[in-house]
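debug: dumping io for the single-chain case to check the tokenizer round-trip. Nothing else runs in this session.
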Amino acid sequence: MRLILLSCISLFIHTNAFSQVSIVVNGIIFSIPGKTGGELMGKTGNLAIIEGFYAIDTNQRTLTSTVVKRFEDFETNDNVDVDQYTIHFEDIDLKEVFEIPIYDDGTFKTPHYYVDFMANDLNESIEHLACIHGTGSSQLTLSSSPLWLRFYFLEEQEAIAFIQRTRTILKL
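debug: decoded output
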């Protein structure tokens, strides 16, 4: 109940994102902007569960993808990684914004759709914050920047709606 209350409070405090989710990792509450695109089951020897969250913040003019990875013994809440990627609208390579999501039925046990956004300038245009369980850290810290950020969706319609909304905001 307390977690639900904290989630609701976070939602009202962070009005820029259209929704807010909170997860607990090692007793620390992480507020994640956005909405979940769903949970994907990993293959044998791979991650047990990966869950992607997405947020469009029109006030800050950013897209944020948060990926929560729960490993084999995820019930203990101590084998969870959190990666959060943020790109500003002006840093998105507009030539690489596609109109349809990519279908993937081979990476995970769960077939899914993904949407990638490339950075204009490949030198750290995407902010990457991470909390990796193996490091003993319990907070998000700045990590190396990738060249693109990826959003995961279980439902094709949700992925298409996300692309259409983003393309409208970017005026494509």
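debug: round-trip ok. The CA atoms of residues 73 and 79 lie 7 Å apart.
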